[in-house]
Design goal:
- The chain is α/β, with parallel strands linked by helices.
- Helix content is about 35%, strand content about 25%.
Length: about 210
Amino acid sequence: MLGVNQSNLCQLGAADLDRVCGDMAGYGFASVRFAVDWGYLASFAGTVNYEPVERVAGALGKHGLTPLPVLGIHHPFVHSPKAFGVFTTRVVGIFGSLPAYEVWNEPNLWAFGIGTPKQFLTYLRAASPVIRAAGAAVIHGGLAAYPDHRVLWLRNYSPTTWLNELYAAGENGDYDLFGYHPYSITPAEKWTDPNDAPYGIDQITL
């Protein structure tokens, strides 16, 4: 199955959404990875608008495309693992049984993160039973191949540091597949060839 990432489907109007989905199907793609951005869909108080999600489900189905929803991305101002479990339940209710759902995107970066690996684990555990109950696999959100870096309270975790802390926090079978983004940067945060990356996949052992 040939897949493509098109992150902003939930932000498109009906006409653009139909056109983009038609184009992806026309190019020969069978699966689409896209963001179901909790922070974008939620109000300041945490109320979530699921209409864009329903619209995406309809458009993908119309064009014969298999969804790969990425749940989370950003969090609303009012958030908790329990609330994320409710969000996951609603989204899974819209898409139903799929091959997989991905929980978060690059959670090791402060720009997307929900906190420390230990905090992320509580959100993963809120979502995993819901996803598995629908017969789908749980993908741990794809990690970015970045070095450890902190500016004030903002922190990026390297994949190795992230996984070490995740398992130290008690991770034990809460996901089925592991997401990893092979592009990378150097310790000076300059783009580099993934084959030469100092924080690449060769450094990760599960």
